[in-house]
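Two entries, shown back to back:
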Amino acid sequence: MSVHQFIVMWDMYGLEYCEDITAAEQIKTWNTLKGVPSSVRIPNLMHLKLRAQMNGHRHYEIYLVDAQTGITANDITVMFESNPQDAADIIRRQGHCFYSDRREREPVIV
């Protein structure tokens, strides 16, 4: 069974970023081993994290998640569009949290 890796980022308004990074990582690794310069771009997680930190009021979450072959970034996007809460819950359970500013509950006002 082959696995695809995705970077998924969302905030309180919905999915903002979803990319399959499997092929890019494989190509970059092989080019590095061959000593060939690679023009393949792997998304910079620090740029995504910086965006999330600078927009703290939007409560971003960034996850790295594995999926079986056949699942595409479009499938994940459709999942978020049709049922965003279930999509977020599934990714939280199965993915690896890279960054989370999730608001668990409302602040207490005394």
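entry 2 starts here
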Amino acid sequence: MNHETSGDALYAWQVQEPDGQWSMVGALIPGIGEHTPLIHRDLLLIRRLEGLARKHAEQTGQPLRLARFALTEVLE
């Protein structure tokens, strides 16, 4: 397993919506107190948030996946 933290890749928990589209899972992060998408450049950190992602998926009945997004274009 790659422990990439360069910023050229982002990892995100996603659920599949009823229309087939994949969306980001968001959760209230303990210690921060804010609702935020479960996305980060550190694979180990995002894996530690799996419990929050799984809880969301179980409550909504939506399929869950962990996605990796790679840098393909710099806009600015």
